[in-house]
Automatic annotation (TrEMBL):
Keywords: Cell membrane, Membrane, Transmembrane, Transmembrane helix. It is found in: Cell membrane. The lineage of its organism: Bacteria, Bacillati, Actinomycetota, Actinomycetes, Pseudonocardiales. The chain crosses the membrane at residues 75-96, 116-139, 159-180, 200-218, 230-252, 259-279, 299-323. Belongs to the cytochrome ubiquinol oxidase subunit 2 family. The keyword Transmembrane helix applies. Its main location: membrane. InterPro entries: Cyt-d_oxidase_su2. It is a multi-pass membrane protein. This is Cytochrome d ubiquinol oxidase subunit II.
Length: 343
């Protein structure tokens, strides 16, 4: 039963990494778009593309936290006690990002809009870095078992956490650029499609370099996980590499169709590979999934609740994304008073 709950949790993490990652990555391109005039078109596309879905993506994060503290309370206690600094920074970044994204649209003066835009963009980088740093600390065994606190600084400011945090930022930016290529093509803007295609290619190359560095760091800091990446988790690693290479090839050739699916496969398989490589531990190599699990009744209840949630919530997500892709949410693209005044 604990294995089934852990599998559900891993799928939720992968889903958040894909959809939430693309959301945060769009903020990265907002940050690097340039000045108000030069970056106006790119920022407008970012805002229009994530406007309908940016709040919905955090449902997955809430689900992850609820399942973790309910199904694996000892692990959750150890993680939050040890990683309270990056987790608090991530929570602050999510709130700041959402507020800045909403307020930027309603501000009239250019100076204030730029300030909110900068906060939105910077927090879009901070949040994935913090989550990646937490993952790096867990993988490298810096979170002790037993529901006790580890080093609040060294647990996430270490070579493994810095590399995984950096990889999370780069992977999110890469995924967002691929999505934005598709979005620009749907709007018929060939210039913006080429703009984000070049950034997607660069993001893929940088992600590959950071991944190689990550393997080198893991070989010494997390030998258990590193060894299993090339045994039990090898299929996921191969799928990630093939997906990333296939998406890169399509992007280089200017073929947008299929690149988005392959990019999603590449990022999702990174998460699945991590989960398989870490198995059977929640906290390598001190706390297994079975040892950390709550009583069977709690796990059964969680699985039932998760199944009901899937039946009730997933159709709404599908409808939201379909309406967005078919551009049937016109209110997100209507200019408001601030746009008219600023223009």
């Amino acid at each position: 039963m604990s294995t089934a709950v852990a599998a559900v949790l891993l799928v939720a993490i992968a889903t958040y990494a894909v959809f939430g990652g693309a959301d945060f990555g769009a903020g990265f391109w907002d940050l690097t778009a340039g000045g108000p005039e030069r970056g106006a078109a790119a920022r407008d596309l970012v805002q229009r593309s994530i406007g309908p879905v940016w709040e919905a993506n955090h449902v997955w994060l809430i689900f992850i936290f609820v399942v973790t503290w309910s199904a694996f309370p000892e692990a959750f206690q150890s993680i939050t006690l040890t990683m309270f600094v990056p987790l608090a920074l991530a929570a602050f970044g999510i709130v700041l990002r959402g507020a800045s994204f909403a307020f930027r649209k309603t501000m009239v003066t250019v100076r204030v809009r730029r300030a909110f835009g900068g906060l939105f963009a910077l927090s879009s980088v901070l949040v994935p870095f913090c989550f990646g740093a937490v993952a790096g600390g867990i993988v490298s065994g810096r979170v002790p078992a037993g529901g006790v606190a580890g080093d609040p600084v060294g647990s996430w400011l270490n070579p493994t956490s810095l590399v995984t945090g950096g990889f999370a930022v780069v992977a999110a930016a890469y995924l967002a650029a691929v999505f934005l290529v598709r979005e620009a093509r749907r709007t018929g803007d060939a210039g913006l499609a080429g703009y984000f295609r070049r950034r997607a290619v660069a993001g893929a190359l940088v992600a590959a370099v950071v991944a190689v560095i990550g393997f080198a760091v893991l070989s010494s800091s997390a030998p258990h996980v590193f060894d299993r990446l090339f045994t039990w988790a090898l299929p996921a690693v191969v799928l990630s590499v093939l997906g990333g290479f296939g998406a890169l090839l399509l992007l280089v050739r200017g073929v947008a169709r299929g690149a988005r699916v392959l990019a999603v496969v590449a990022v999702a398989c990174v998460i699945f590979g991590w989960g398989v490589a870490q198995w059977p531990y929640l906290l390598p190599e001190s706390l297994t999934v079975a040892a950390a699990a709550a009583p069977t009744g709690t796990l059964v209840t969680l699985l039932i609740a998760g199944g009901l949630a899937a039946l009730l919530v997933l159709p709404g997500f599908v409808l939201l994304y379909v309406l967005d892709q078919r551009r049937l949410l016109p209110e997100e693209g209507v200019a408001d008073a601030a746009d008219r005044a600023g223009g």
